[in-house]
Design a protein that fits this description.
seven-stranded mixed sheet; about 25% helix; binds dioxothiomolybdenum(VI) ion
Length: about 700
């Protein structure tokens, strides 16, 4: 019997607190290391202390008899893995753990010690002596590194339109800047943890990750299993920021141990191990040249960028992507170079590519405004493109100008004297800065099922992951509106690879991708015959979208103080104005973009993975040495949304995952220049660098 009830109000667009909020604040929500599993043993990881070399020996006999120890897995007894396993960048040697005696980077897992309790495993892991033959390593990164090669054309391939050199030569004003960003670490609050066990022929795992389906596929390939024999679940995830998009070492090692010891095994990384063995943003080294006419119209942008990579795995830090779409110019040239070094394979982190690329581009634009003695806001408005500057494709919707204008009004930009080092408050120098930015939008195929239950509710099933973003709450609202029922009639199931293929919580495409499948399933459920259960796989619908440039946009405004005596920079005001398509839930969208801006503030002022050039090791792999913005660093942050709609994507959604992170670092760096008169082209803007300036 159908008990269809039309919704009294549309759920999409309404602010609602997250559905699991009470469970989280009362401590009832279970994260992956919290799930009780009977008969559990615990694995502790041992990481390489040399940066390149070979393992000569592991003194397993010396720890074998320590209290509680069940055994040690190393390259001599580990199950064989399939070297072809990988992800969308291709085969990933970073996953190929404990397969040989080769040490390709510091922090490489070399053993797993399995014991009855976590404490026993940890004590034995710390006691395990590993003898290495150290070999010379290279961790010295720069754009000019001779091993650099053009990054593969998977995305952000080189482009050239117009005659860049001729346009630069003909420009009234030209600026050239070299910008650098350091290695940065995702630093999710919850350390990576996995628990694995066998149920007959089926491998079961609970793992802290961003996409249970995709990771199950990778894991199956790695262990030479058909995908249907692997199930991965994850109820709650304490943040990912990219580092949980990969099949993590915790999961691979837990599966090895569960297989060898024939019982459930949990592997939880320590904070240091999260830094050294999961994922990080590679350092970048970027040179930008911009030429413009005297009135500020751009004639040429030349952006050459390099990033570090590991020879083990392909990865692309797409630094130059933004330069192809943000501003109109008759000549644009980009080149992206990957420099292979003896480092942990880099991977996606908080707006990969775009965050460091935007720091370079938007700093260079500010330098151009300075040289032109032009308002940096006006410079952006004069170079707004009508179509994609490189592709010539139309924009699906482009509301950057609305973001800039509203932001300028709200922030009080009109009164700004654009000359630097003019405002003082007591001993402090005060300055303001802005940056414009965009982040690509889109949707990837997923599967969703909807079942009409006899009690009038609908069970909606999609293998999404909720990293703390509010994905559950957003999807329930989307399903309710698509089915034209109230949200209380939606029973949502996510976080389980058995629910079918689905895109991960990544690339700012989770909500749009999952919503695509849910809305298609809902449309069929309400269509002819009113079936009781519908399953839709949107990969069958691929290719229906017309070719367009699809991006979210934002304008970020910052006010900083700089203390000339101590070099301390503090952000006093931060405002972001966003065009992100339809806002599914204003409360959580705000939380997403404010969180992103805090990440950008942290990138601007604090975050830096410091590598010792002699040992090749990180010297600050913990929260004592690796600074991330804390409460005291973060001012009241304002976020606003302009009306926006993405015509080609379900419900008009563009995504709010990463756009908040982009632009903020440049806005702050530009404000620091305005305060002090000194450009900071290398992040983070540390006290010592400010003092030297
Ligand atoms: Mo993300 S850095 O797309 O998980």
């Amino acid at each position: 019997m159908s008990t269809y009830t039309p919704p009294t109000t549309a759920a999409v667009g309404t602010a609602r607190p997250r559905v699991e909020g009470r469970a989280k604040v009362t401590g009832r929500a279970r994260y992956s290391a919290d799930e009780p599993v009977p008969g559990l043993a615990h694995g502790a990881v041992v990481l390489s202390t040399v940066t390149r070399g070979r393992i000569l020996d592991l003194d397993v006999a010396a720890v074998q008899d320590l209290p509680g120890v069940l055994g040690v897995i190393d390259h001599r007894n580990a199950p064989q893995l399939n070297p072809q396993a990988g992800h969308f960048f291709g085969p990933d040697g970073g996953l190929f753990l404990l397969q040989n005696d080769v040490i390709p980077h510091a922090g490489r897992p070399v053993a797993l010690v399995v014991a009855q309790t976590p404490e026993q495993a940890r004590a034995a892991a710390e006691a395990l002596r590993v003898l290495y033959e150290a070999q010379p390593h290279d961790t010295g990164f720069s754009l000019a590194h001779p091993a650099g090669r053009t990054a593969s054309a998977l995305f952000d391939g080189p482009v050239e339109i117009g005659d860049v050199d001729a346009e630069l030569a003909a420009s009234a004003v030209q600026v050239t800047g070299r910008y650098g960003t350091p290695e940065e670490h995702c630093s999710a609050m919850e350390p990576h943890s996995a628990t694995a066990w066998w149920e007959g022929e089926r491998l079961q795992a609970i793992d802290s990750n961003q996409g249970p389906y995709q990771i199950a596929v990778t894991l199956a390939a790695l262990f030479n299993l058909p995908p249907e024999r692997v199930r991965i679940r994850v109820e709650h995830v304490g943040g990912g920021f990219g580092s949980k998009g990969m099949c993590g070492p915790q999961l691979i090692l837990a599966v090895m141990a569960a297989t060898m010891f024939e019982r459930p095994v949990r592997v939880t990384l320590t904070r240091e191990q999260v830094f050294l063995a999961t994922a990080h943003r590679p350092a970048t080294d970027q040179v930008i040249r911009i030429g413009a006419d005297a009135d500020g119209r751009l004639r040429a942008i030349d952006h050459e960028a390099a990033f570090e990579v590991s020879p083990l795995a392909d990865y692309i830090e797409a630094c130059t992507e933004l330069t192809k779409t943000l501003y109109a110019a008759p000549a644009i040239r980009t080149r992206l170079t990957a420099v292979p070094l003896d480092i942990l394979p880099p991977y996606s982190m908080r707006a990969p590519g775009t965050a460091p690329g935007s720091f370079a581009l938007e700093s260079a634009m500010d330098e151009l405004a300075e040289r032109l003695e032009l308002d940096p806001l006006e410079l952006r408005l004069r170079n707004e493109p009508v179509v994609g500057p490189v592709t010539g494709l139309p924009f699906s919707s482009r509301n950057l100008v609305a973001c800039l204008r509203l932001g300028a009004r709200r922030f009080g930009w009109a009164d700004r004297d654009h000359r630097p080092r003019l405002r003082r408050e007591g001993a402090l120098l005060v300055g303001t800065g802005l940056a414009a930015t965009s982040f690509s939008a889109g949707a990837f195929p997923s599967t969703a099922s909807i079942t009409a239950e006899p009690d009038g509710t609908f069970t909606v099933v999609v293998a999404a992951a909720d990293l703390g973003t509010g994905a559950r709450t957003a999807l329930a609202a989307i399903a309710a509106d698509a089915l034209e029922v109230g949200v209380e009639q939606i029973r949502l199931r996510i976080s389980d690879s058995d629910l079918g293929p689905a895109w991960s919580a990544g690339g700012s495409r989770g909500t749009a991708s999952w919503a695509w499948a849910i809305t298609e399933a809902a449309a069929r459920m309400r269509g002819p015959g009113r079936p009781a259960t519908v399953t839709v796989d949107t990969s069958a619908l691929l290719g229906e979208l017309p070719s367009m440039e699809r991006h979210a946009y934002s304008a970020v405004f910052a006010e900083v103080t700089a203390d000339p005596a101590t070099g301390e920079v503090r952000v006093r005001r931060l405002l972001g104005v966003f065009a992100v398509g339809r806002v599914v839930n204003p409360l959580m969208a705000r939380s997403q973009v404010v969180g992103g801006m805090i990440g950008g503030l942290s990138m601007a002022l604090h975050e830096e993975g410091v590598r010792d050039p002699v040992s090749g090791r990180h010297v600050n792999p913990d929260f004592a040495g690796y600074h991330i913005a804390a409460h005291a660093d973060v001012p009241g942050i304002e976020a606003e949304f302009v009306p926006d709609h993405e015509p080609g994507l379900p419900m008009g959604i563009k995504g709010v995952g990463e756009i908040g992170n982009v632009g903020t670092a440049a806005a702050i760096a530009n404000a620091v220049w305005h305060a002090t008169g000194v450009r900071h082209r290398q992040l983070p803007i540390r006290l010592d660098r400010v003092l030297e300036g």
